[in-house]
Amino acid sequence: MSDEEWERFLRESVTGAAGAPVEPSARARETDQRSRERSGRPDAWRSYAPARPRRRTGWYVAGLVAAVALVVMALFPQQLVGWFGGTGGGRDGAPLAAESESPREAPGAAPGLRPTLAEPFRGSPAARWADGAAGITVPEAKATGWMDAGQVEQALRQSRNFLVAAGLDSRVLRGERPTEAIALLNPHQKDVQEYLRTALSSAAPTPETDPLLLFSRFRPDQARPAGDVVKTRGRLTYREGKRGAVEVTADVTFVYPVTPAAGDDGPDAEVVRTIVRREVVMSWDDPTKVITEPGTMSLVSYALDMTNGGCSGPTGYFVPPFGTADERPADTADRVDPYDRSKPIGTGDETTAAGDGCATATRS
User: Fold this and answer.
1) pTM given for the model
2) pLDDT digits (tens, 9 = 90+) for 73-92
3) What is the spatial distance between Cα 361 and Cα 364, in angstroms, rounded to a whole number?
4) Whole-Å CA distances, 100 to 27, 66, 74, 260
């Protein structure tokens, strides 16, 4: 080795040669080691990495439970009424869901408050019922008997129209002739037409010819409505009847608040609730098999239970017991709950149109 090469070797030993490897520091070795241990590509300097979504299992479960609850409420409202003590709304004063099937028990107790002209349904389960026709549930229409689904839907609508015309028309309630209801009845059904002629013309109807069997009527000189609302609760059902007819059954309770015709309008005015439950079976007949007219139906049967409508013989009108509403017979076996729709009509001791005695309503 020449002297020049030896001197260059000595200099490079001190200053380092260009391109020679440099021993990394301890910090650099540690950083490099962590980088190799991580899987995947290393993050670029100042790059944006979106945050990984956090699992929210609790929210998902709560949302699923809420969705299931909404479906159950929509499909089985009546069962929910039973689960929560028969009140159906979960809080006092909440409107009840529409009646889609026969209830399993009587409605829960309401506060024992006296009705007034301003609040005629105060203290009554009917305070949570729907007004007028809205309280009569109409089921989904399906092809039945001789009718397709569209015809069944029309038959159901007309059946409800009959109940409205017979039990809610303000003119009929004042004792006028139920013209609209009669127009829906088959004019060729002789026994019904004879009943109508006798019931609506006789001053002394018999139990068999009492117009109250089908129509709600008050004598204007004895009672007047306490307000413009009649509460209702009930439903229509249907099936195939004789000769392919569509047979519609209505089971509806009407609550009529009334006050004496000659009474005052002050806060102490007497208000009595006449409670009427009717079951009417209507047959929409095949015109190729039964003589009928378009848009009319035949009556198969009709029955009535009533409370606070009169205890004497039939007069053709409801007779609310003004001034005697607090009287009670001694026999507790004659007590009845007029709001209990869980039992078939006529199985209790309610007073009927025949008027041969009165049971005592446990509430009104």
Assistant:
1) 0.72
2) 555 544 444 343 333 333 45
3) 7
4) 77, 22, 11, 36
